[in-house]
């Protein structure tokens, strides 16, 4: 019966589970948090600067995706954004490096919020941690499919998601460790709940990250013609068959899943809300 593997957790246990689900839903890629800045009054100048930065980030994302970080130049970004090089230097005194880090911070923040919201909402609907994990996977795929240029950057700059950031900041490395730790804890929780096979959680977490990279990379290399729903369905099947006991996988596979996330909720990630 489906109810045999559901988790109902009132009070403190509910909050603990919800926290674990939120952490699990944000794994599988390098995240860079948005820098904390003291809030300032919104002046016309501030609004104008932020508008320029948003336009520059969007242009830079396209240039970085096409040329890579090393091959990109400020002049190319300025041309793509339709602004002068001087405007870029005023908006980003740190030049290309600062633009890149700001882009990573913005996108990382969006991914974090989107996957967190979707994974937690799924858990609250069904009290099923496995369903929440699958919904987090679906949200991640949806976001990257909606932002293929950002996916190209991540795939290019981080050759092995399971091995962590090779060229990156200390913040990127710390966030990768945090995300991987959350994946491990999610696997441990799934094992304890009987939803995940009893294997090494650290190894399974890295396997999952590599699996996400493989599916998204294959989608991109194949021309990106498949819909997010098709990519999610394939990744979801592999997740269930790789990490779940056969009886649990059978319940959640397409022919018998009581609350399948494929097709997903129909919501689409925000696009370019920079």
What would you note in describing this structure?
The protein is mainly alpha-helical and 274 residues long. The protein has a domain at 2-31 and 107-252: Orthogonal Bundle (Tetracycline Repressor, domain 2), CATH 1.10.357. Helix content is 67%, strand content 0%. α2 (44-71) crosses α3, α2 (44-71) crosses α5 and α7 crosses α9. It is elongated, with a radius of gyration of 20 Å. Residues 1-34, 256-268 and 270-274 have low confidence and may be disordered.
Mean pLDDT: 79
Biggest sheet overview: none
**CATH topology type of the domain at 2-31 and 107-252:** Tetracycline Repressor, domain 2
Radius of gyration: 20 Å
Low-confidence stretches: 1-34, 256-268, 270-274
Strand content: under 5%
Report the oligomer.
Answer: single chain
Number of strands: 0
Query: What distance lies between the first and last C-alpha atoms, to the nearest angstrom?
Result: 45 Å
Summing up helix and strand content along with how strands pair, one would put the structural category as mainly alpha
